[in-house]
Structure formats: structure tokens, C-alpha cells
Specification:
GO terms for molecular function: hydrolase activity. The chain is about 15% helix and about 45% strand. By secondary structure, it is α+β, with helices and mostly antiparallel strands. It has a single domain (about 10-160), classed as Beta Barrel (FomD barrel-like fold), CATH 2.40.380. The radius of gyration is 15 Å and the shape is globular.
Length: about 160
Amino acid sequence: MGQSPVVGGQVEVILLKEDREKIRYTADVLADDGTHLVVRAPWAGTQARDFGFVRFEQGDVFTEHFWRDRWYAVKEVRDASGARKGWYCDVTRPAVRDGGVLRVEDLDLDLWVPADGGAPLRLDEDEFLASGLTERDPFAAARAWQALADLEELAADRFAVLG
């Protein structure tokens, strides 16, 4: 785990929520320019999860974009046949890499952008408001709301800027 992620290598992604580990998985490093890290990993859940607007299941592949200077992550989701389901976007603090580990702190706000051209769906605003972040860290809360607005802008052209 002490190695730095290199293209073609692997990195361990740890998603934190309020300093607790939410999920941990190994991903293949596709690109890393020192600011923007792109990884690919299969669905890390042990069973399918139906959100109502999308179902994640075994065989799904996530191509995930993390930034060390942005307050969000964008995850393109494709099914086992390669068909794009959409993009699941997390509002996060900027990602931090420590050797072969990438830590990402989830701030509750999320955005789902369906591949079929449907309207983006804001998620978990109630969880964000209940988290107390606005009171504990007003700066981070303001950055989180701005990140959600930035993601909605990127979603307008279905993240074409990511390639």
C-alpha cells in the first residue's frame, strides 16, 4: 500500500462519511496528472442496490473522476454490456492521495444524471441539511452547494469535458 498509484497500477479508494469508513475498494488507475485522478472499478457492493431511478448490480463498471482541487467526484456507470447507465456524482472534499490510498470524504449531496437525457436528480439534500455541516463548517457547506451547482452545469452536456 505504500506505492503511489501509477497508470496501469491500482489504488485503494476509501470513501469516508463523517470520518467513518463508508466503503473501501481497489480500482485500476487509468490516468493521474497530479490533480485529476481517473480510476475504474467494478460495482463494489456485495449485492444489487435499487435506488428507484437506477439499479447498481454485479457487472456494472464505474469510471471515476476524482480531483485534488475540486469538491466533487464524477462516476460514469456502465452495465456489464458496456451500455452507459448515467453518472453518479458525489459532493466531496477534495480527494487526498497517500501513497496507494485515495481518501475521499463524502459530504452527502449527490447528483444522478441519467444517460437517456433525462433531467439530473439532486439527492440527499435532507441528509446534508441534517448533518450539521452548515453550523460546524460554514465554509465547507458553501463549497458543497457550489460544487452541486458546478456539477449541474457539467451535466448539461453530459460531462463531455471528461471525454
